[in-house]
Amino acid sequence: MTDIGIDKPHLTLLGLGAMGTALARAWLAAGHPLTVWNRTPGRAEPLAAEGAKVAGTAAEAVAASDLVVVCLLDDASVRETLDGADLTGKNVVNLTTGTPAEARARAEWAEQRGARYLDGGIMAVPPMIGSPESGGFVFYSGSQAVFGDHQRTLAVPAGTRYVGEDPGFAALHDVALLSAMTGMFAGVTHAFALVRKEDVAPGDLAPLLAEWLTAMTGYAYGLAGHLESGDYAKGVTSNLAMMVQGNSTLLGTATAQGVSAELLAPFTTLMERRLADGHGDEGLAGLVDMLTR
Ligand code: FVH
Hints:
With about 290 residues, the chain is of the alpha/beta class. It is built from 12 helices and 8 strands. The protein has helices spanning about 20-30, 45-50, 60-65, 75-80, 100-110, 145-155, 170-195, 200-215, 220-230, 240-255, 265-275, 285-290, and strands at about 10-15, 35, 55, 65-70, 90-95, 115-125, 135-140, 160. Strand 1, helix 1 and strand 2 form a beta-alpha-beta unit. The two termini are about 45 Å apart. The structure holds ligand FVH. Ligand FVH binds near residues 43, 73 and 81. Its EC number is 1.1.-.-. It comes from Microtetraspora malaysiensis. Belongs to the HIBADH-related family.
């Protein structure tokens, strides 16, 4: 069954951790009839008071709806939870974070049991769920038919981005963005360490960091352009030779401030290797190749 032409389709949600509970509240607030199940039953009680139907077992919960959303700790818990359920004819949407390989294997596993499978990667934290203005969204990949049939329901908790039929692609995109975020967190951590013992209030540095990092995000487009054209020096305004020279200022200042350079060092070392190979006129695209090989 699709959600086209149905006002508020019924759905099932397995998993009522921090994220599952936020998802449940968003669907309940939007008026969707919702059946929930959680391994620890007490976590379902507040949602029952808010209108959710609580199933006694995962198999009962799966039987209650055509659309079954899963948001559990990890892939192993998904397998354990769905193992005893009849998935024939079900549309399984798995929002549990995992690797691309896990998503591909879980898709095959679900399809062998008669289900259609859509994988999801949530780019939001629980408070962002149900708040469109927060900018949170979910990557989806796998069955395009499931995505098309249920897009309106799936769009209730957060924005939707379908990234392809390969069930591993949602996880791949999820991990790519989270990896970029990790690099940003490392940079911000180092920046606060640099000023830690000085007369600079963290609260004063924070808006400056946010403004600067926001201004730099366009760099992703330039890097993509170089990777797609194969000409890594085209239109470069800040080349590798200049950046490596600048790195000595970053590293020297860290030493002078008594701050470990352990977060910066791996990246600066990679840049130095690329420069030593004679690519000083390029931007950073060559580092992507170095990492990939
Ligand atoms: N919370 C976040 O900020 C992030 C945002 C991005 C996406 N992640 C992923 O979402 C999945 C669920 O995360 P969560 O925040 O809900 O996680 P927890 O609060 O720790 O709840 C875990 C639920 O999983 C159940 N569970 C664990 N092991 C099993 C098992 N073997 N069998 C059945 N259920 C299991 C657990 O049940 P219980 O402990 O209450 O009985 C919770 O319902 C996750 O992939 C994040 O990476 C969240």
